[in-house]
Specification:
By secondary structure, the chain is of the alpha/beta class. The protein has twelve helices and twelve strands.
Length: 329
Amino acid sequence: MQRSAPSPPAICALHDGRAGNARQALALAHALTPHPDAHVLAARAPWRWWAPRRLPGDGAAFGPDFAALRRQPPALAIGCGRQAALATRLLRTRGSMAVQILDPRLDTRHWDLVVAPAHDGLRGDNVVATLGSLHPVDDDYLLCAIAAFPALAALPSPHTVLLVGGPTRHAGLDDDAFESLLQRLAAQARAEGGSFSAIASRRTPPGWRAALGRVDAALPGLRWRDTGDGANPYAGLLACADRLVCTPDSVNMLSEAAATRAPLFAWAPERLQGRPRQFLDALLASGRARPLDEALAAFPVTPLRETARVAEVVRERLGLATAPMSAKA
């Protein structure tokens, strides 16, 4: 009996393995179909240097696995990052519809749609502007996180959660100010009879991680510095926070915090500059976040869910079925 050839995937998310790029590509793909394919790109020289611009022989830019994908291209290719922008261009020449996330720094006509943060200033008929970044945080994500981290849901209320990034060229954040922030939030949690948790990220410098370890261990809550403190509880902390405080440096982190149902407070927004400041100003102007103040008073929240909105735009603009896409029979 002769076996039929495998069907091409309906939707494939492509990225270079970097966490931020992978998270955005996969989030949009999952918003469109329950079981998208995923492809991690390992670009070869010289195409790695020039992506997303095309060079002779670029069909070999990503090795044999990608060459096989080109032979059976997906109905829809979703890429995030510069390497993926070349890959989605190449798949489009083979008949795929192509959606590129983040500004490809090239004319957007090479893709069917380009999804880019509004603060990047990209314009075009096929550009979908977002307030912040794409991510998987929605009600299902948060409910699963509560189930995965039940101890966090049992912490005394109000539970204040600090999401910690670090200094960047756009965010002039110093060690002394961060230490003061920790002590202030811990003191307020103690006075309220609540709990205080804080979690570091990949960008958090060693001195800030050490400061997390100096918070009074008797204060209820979880201070997570790295995997030495156990499994990463980020999703659980998003889900179980009564209020969120976020350092201002990360568009991704602020976007994910804004997708929860907890009031969101931005620490030291005045220290942020450049395009990230434009995003934070827009987030504050929308009312979804407020500058950190002394009261940390609750306020009405409408979660910011840009991934779901963009998925609907993609369906409408590309003529996709309303129901989740499945692989061709």
